[in-house]
TrEMBL record:
It comes from Rhizosphaericola mali. The keyword DNA-binding applies. One of its GO terms (molecular function) is sequence-specific DNA binding. It holds the Pfam family HTH_18. PANTHER family: ARAC-FAMILY TRANSCRIPTIONAL REGULATOR, TRANSCRIPTIONAL REGULATORY PROTEIN. InterPro entries: Homeodomain-like_sf (IPR009057), HTH_AraC (IPR018060). Residues 175-273 form the HTH araC/xylS-type domain. This is Helix-turn-helix transcriptional regulator. The keyword Transcription regulation applies.
Amino acid sequence: MDKIELLRILYLEIKKENDFPNNFQRIYHTHLYCHNGSIKFLFNDQKMECKSGQFLFWFAESRLSGLQFSKNFKATVLLVEKKFLMDNIPDQSWSINAQLHSRVYPVKPNISILDKQRILTNFSRINERFLDKEHRFYEEALKLQMQIFILDMWNTFAKEYENRKHSLQTGTLYERFIQLLQEYCLQNREVKFYSSRLNITPKYLNHLCKIHSGITASEWIQRHAKEHIIVLLQNKNLNISEISDKMEFSSRSFFTRYVKKLLGVTPNEYRVRLQ
């Protein structure tokens, strides 16, 4: 595994769990296009499935377990070393929405023929770029290819993200709550805010979430807040005070205590770990 850990890009054909490298979930962000069969798994304690013709994205170190592959399963997979991907995310305002949406909805079900072609072509191109170590401008070209890859992925995710936003009007109360979380959790971390938007009591919203997902609305809010904080702390263009202001904390010290409660470390300690 020591040799594999040095690779920033891995391009694989997967038919069973053993085709993945050891500890891949810890080291790599996973991009998977399913050609045949299906893969079932637990993601944040929720049962999910990726079927033929669908795309799947797992962040490294996701709460992922219970992988089950159908007998006829076949997928093309691109694994990207976690730091390499995060270091090359284009500085776009849509970045946070894309990352947070994928942390809640890792399966992209509505993949068009054009999206499929774009995904598989990008898999191949970035692998070819990674292997072309004789290129005079190897590092620069590889980083640019990574950024193009990410922008194309965001383009695919954006379609599904916009479709899910419609559930604010048409979905169940639980679905509407999850969408509201994605829209407002950067600044609003109280159950009362969301229950008032849905015209129900905080107690009933907690009850609905418990029935649908096994966790309360309060726990969902904490999870989303945690994901927001992680994404923002990984953005080297923002300092701690700017992140605190962006999330509308009353003071930097309050923000620091809140982060320590969620992550177990202070914002500065978390950033040191990223180095």
